Amino acid sequence: MFILLVSLVAYQFKYIVMSGRIAKIREIFNTTLSNGAKLLGFSVDFQGTAHQAIATGIAGIDAKPILQDNAVTIKQENSGSQPIVIGTNDVLNESVTTEGEVQIYSRDAEGVKQADILIKADGSIKLNNSSGSFELKADGICEASNDIIIGGISFLKHLHKFTNADGVTATTQPPE
């Protein structure tokens, strides 16, 4: 936390003072820097004062916050540079992860989760939306809450041949 609030960065034998703030996101827009880089831009509110900010993120993860979110920003003091958003947090949804887990989710404009991927500490992965779920368990077994269709063939609607532990071959009947 201390690093976010005031950090001293050694660069070419000088110290640059950076300050960090948590701000409310008021507007989200696309912007292009002078070097052609395309970034998200924000209008953020620091205790009633609006500032323009640009966002930096993690390559390979495309995530756009919603207006209810807070932004964690840093700014080089006495430089006149605009703040940089280094992270955002969802103020509406509680975390469901435990230590070592990752969840990626989408939300509608009101902040309600629509779909998620939960990568669990035990090695399993679960995908969810309002219509169903699919889980690759740590032991390699896959479970789906609804039908699985592969190559246009419904897993639930066609016959399956199998051999049980006693070596007996049987055929399942599709559900009616």
- N-to-C CA distance: 59 Å
**What fraction strand?**
over 45%
Determine Rg (CA atoms, Å): 24 Å
How confident is the prediction overall: mean pLDDT?
Answer: 78
| Helix fraction by DSSP (H/I, runs of at least 4) | under 10%
Structural class: mainly beta
Sheet with most strands: strand arrangement: 2-3-4-6-5
DSSP helical segment count: 1
- Count of β-strands: 15
What order do the helices and strands follow? Answer: HEEEEEEEEEEEEEEE
Sequence stretches where pLDDT stays below 50 over 5 or more residues: 1-13
The largest sheet is: 5 strands, mixed, barrel
CATH fold field value of the largest domain: OB fold (Dihydrolipoamide Acetyltransferase, E2P)
Total discrete domains = 2
In CATH's first tier, which class of the largest domain applies? Mainly Beta
Shape: elongated
Q: Judging by the overall fold, what is the CATH architecture of the largest domain?
A: Beta Barrel
Notes on the protein architecture:
The protein has 176 residues and is mostly beta strands. The protein has two domains: 2-89, OB fold (Dihydrolipoamide Acetyltransferase, E2P) (Beta Barrel), CATH 2.40.50; 102-172, Single Sheet (Glycosyl hydrolase fold), CATH 2.20.220. The chain contains one helix and 15 strands. The chain has one helix at residues 2-5, and strands spanning 6-11, 14-32, 38-46, 49-55, 70-76, 84-89, 102-107, 113-119, 125-129, 132-136, 142-144, 149-150, 153-154, 160-163, 169-172. The chain has a five-stranded mixed β-barrel. Strands 7-8-9-10-11 form a five-stranded antiparallel β-sheet, with no helix packed on it. Strands 12-13 form a two-stranded antiparallel ribbon. Strand 12 (149-150) and strand 13 (153-154) form a beta hairpin. The longest helix has 4 residues, at 2-5. It starts with a helix and ends with a strand. 7% of the residues are buried.
